[in-house]
Amino acid sequence: QVQQALLALTIPLEMLQVVKSCMLQAMHKGLSCQTHAEANVRMLPTYICSTPDGTEKGDFLVVELCQSHIRTLWVTLLGDGNHSPQVTHKIFDMQQDIMQGSGEALFDFIAQCVHQFLADISSSQQRIPLGFVFPFSCRQTQLDKAELISWSKGFSCTDVEGKDVVQLLQAAINKQELYHVDVVALMNDTVGTMMTCSMGETPCEVALIVGTGTNSCFMAEARLVEMAEGTSGRMCVNTEWGYFGDDGTLCDILTPYDQSVDQESPNPGEKRFEKLVGSLYLGEIIRHVLIALATEKALFHGSNITVLRSKDVLKTQQVLKIINAEGGMAEARRTLEALGLQPSERDCCRVQQVCRAVVSRAAALCAAGLAAILSHMCQSRKLERLVVNVGVDGELYRDYARFGEILQNVTGLLAPECLATLLPAVDGTGQGAAIVTAVGLRLAAQRREVDCLLAPLRLSHADLERVQALMRQEMELGLGCETNANASVRMLPTYVQNTPDGTERGDFLALDLGGTNFRVLVVRVAQDGIRIASKVYVIPTTIMQGTGEALFDHIIECIMDFQLKEDLMEQTLPLGFTFSFPCQQLGLDKAILLTWTKGFSASDCVGKDVVQLLREAAQRKQHLGLKVVAVVNDTVGTMMSCGYDDPKCEIGLIVGTGTNACYMEETRNVGTVEGEQGRMCINMEWGAFGDNGCLDDIFTSFDRLVDEKTINVGKQRFEKLISGMYLGEIVRHILLALVEKQLLFCGKPCPKLQTKDIFQTKFLSSIEMDGLALQQVQGTLQDLELEASFEDSILVQEVCQTVSTRAAHLCAAGLAAVVEKMRENRGLDQLAVSVGVDGTLYKMHPHFSKRLQQMLHHLAPNCTVTFLESEDGSGKGAALVAAVACRGSEP
Ligand code: ADP
Ligand code: MG
């Protein structure tokens, strides 16, 4: 019979595995918005998003509401890694009636304790930050905002449930005229334990309480804490796992003894897990086992066991002494005899076995819960192996060494991928509460500074509407014959008057110069589609920035090489030349270079017709079969290539190394070109928007630093806010400023970050990737020799988001001006138009296109704009311009 009872109390490993996976499921349910309401394990957000970094410093007041007393502490942190905080504390006993009285009386009492404590220590500090340890389930929405969900542990004060307890405490403190005391943070006791155990460099990211009750908390990935919106990084979650099993999940392991304990408790059916683990219940479970065994005559033969029928006769401390190897048997005898029983030697031995079984089961269940937390952390952080510190507090762990051993071993078996180091909490929760308060204050101050630094980069809707209006104004200036010379947006006619209609046919050569790569292509436009063969050629910087002759000679050499390889030497194909620099176009095949951009500076080209330069080079190289039909900008090429499939595509947009746009304007509006009929594609050259100073108030100090280090200072100002060549640089300068202000990388100097262009724009894409574990962000930064803490990574991510969002929104403001003008041109209430887009930044950045489209919709609500990503816009597009030009003229 005894064996049977012991067996019922022993949970096999496979069963513990099941408990672990049920706990995992329950945790997920609590984390998810959809299922949170009915979840037993509530996974409450605590708004504690950071573990201490050891720099916390200052004096803090802590108030802890405990079972039968209030504890006040004065904690001085020295900024030494929290190794030696100085703590003064005082305990104020609390009358039983306060626990069940009015809420006002409770908080008044707490405030009086604070008053008296402060009088005792006679601090002269100006402002005193207070951390409040409040060990009840709260719905927290900020570090200092927490609604009590429900009382427990014998408390039932009126008018507190559903109210913000921080406010209640602050009001009571104000009533005491302690206006210099600010309640800065509220936390659960588990969180306090976790923080207490965070020492110096090694953070503690999990805490367990195994005392009267049981609970746990851990640092979860904030994106998974759906109840706390808009937070990134990590957040400590208070699991409230005592309620695990309230939906019946644990019924397979519940024994008749557990059922009896539950039935006799004040809250039957609730806190089923806690009733298996918490010390408040262990004595009761044992009592019921003993009653059952005695009734079956397996124990206390001949004794009157009525005494065992009264509740709580077995105290936890007695149980813990009985199970001790040394003196345990004697203690068992003493305890049983004190109850008036006459135990035999064998009875004592059996009672000891029962006690051990019940406590071991508690430890094993606790391990199953811990294993669930660890596996969850390991998985959500996308780690193969998790190494973590676990702070543990509570009398079961403190007073019975075997509990810790079982906890450690079983956790290891259930979560073999995790290595947990259990740390005993030293000063309960008080010290931790001071640290939380300090961290809260530090983060709030940092947040203010970061916001202040980034504020100029965060453009409001009103700002963007202003940019849109300015763009519109500059467009008009650029189109006007007299005003064109003074406009920052050049609005260059392209002599492209038609978009493709799908009837174009033939083989064409194309050149693409002005992007990252120089390419030569052959494009075959046929009934059944377009086929392209191309080759990329390198243009060495020496040639980019050498003489014009050398540059164009090099281009011809590349063409000849390509024709040779493609076996095209014998043919004279019409050639479309994508030349992505600002040109004054005088005809489809006549384009005067106005200025180099994007790192080119070859001499003797500005002011010359680039088609002529190409033809001259061909002659020098004796390459006679070259027939240049059209020179186009890459924006035009992009529009044309998308226009082949979608006739509504009348806008081209580039967001790559640089940025630019073109669109179909009414010829009558183009003051710089003769003619009133039809439309002409206008190459806006919008990258130069703002070069006349009209955007000066949008530029930040970071933009100016970036501009100063470019080869075209003061030029292409709009482009320098948006495109791939510059975003990384802007981020780099912001990061340097954050380091300078000690807000990043602990203010440690970062020599590598001083290097121009070291922070590439593609890093923004990878750092902003959704669901990317922050470890990977750290990895990206590590490549730059930047040792990023977790908080650093989040801040870098925020900087990247701010910069790329501004770029996308500015781009939207520019496009809004374009589509609205087109709509008005055509006298439409609603315009439906498509934009062909090219550029790696647009295509590869995880959020750029979405942010651009959303903002455009907001700024131009009467236009329905469809975005098409062009495939090889500059290659295919140039050929299509040539094809459209040849349309009808040749077979
Ligand atoms: P171009 O504009 O010269 O024709 P691209 O459209 O390919 O060339 O754009 C190149 C630019 O895109 C580079 O300057 C780089 O800054 C940026 N870039 C490259 N990879 C990425 C990426 N993964 N995410 C965002 N930007 C990128
Ligand atoms: Mg390009």
TrEMBL record:
Catalysed reaction equations from the record: D-fructose + ATP = D-fructose 6-phosphate + ADP + H(+); D-glucose + ATP = D-glucose 6-phosphate + ADP + H(+); a D-hexose + ATP = a D-hexose 6-phosphate + ADP + H(+); D-mannose + ATP = D-mannose 6-phosphate + ADP + H(+)
Signal peptide segment: 1-21
Main EC class the enzyme belongs to: transferase
GO molecular function: ATP binding; D-glucose binding; fructokinase activity; glucokinase activity; mannokinase activity
Every Hexokinase C-terminal domain range: 206-439, 650-884
EC number: 2.7.1.1
Keywords: ATP-binding, Glycolysis, Kinase, Nucleotide-binding, Signal, Transferase
GO biological process per UniProt: glucose metabolic process; glycolytic process; intracellular glucose homeostasis
Cellular component GO terms, alphabetical: cytosol; mitochondrion
The keyword Nucleotide-binding belongs to this UniProt entry's keyword annotation: yes
Domain of life: Eukaryota
Pfam assignment, any one: Hexokinase_2
Pathway: Carbohydrate metabolism; hexose metabolism; Carbohydrate degradation; glycolysis; D-glyceraldehyde 3-phosphate and glycerone phosphate from D-glucose: step 1/4
Domain Hexokinase N-terminal, residue spans: 2-198, 450-644
Homology family: Belongs to the hexokinase family.
Record's function text: Catalyzes the phosphorylation of various hexoses to hexose 6-phosphate.
Protein name: hexokinase
Species per Swiss-Prot/TrEMBL record: Zapornia atra
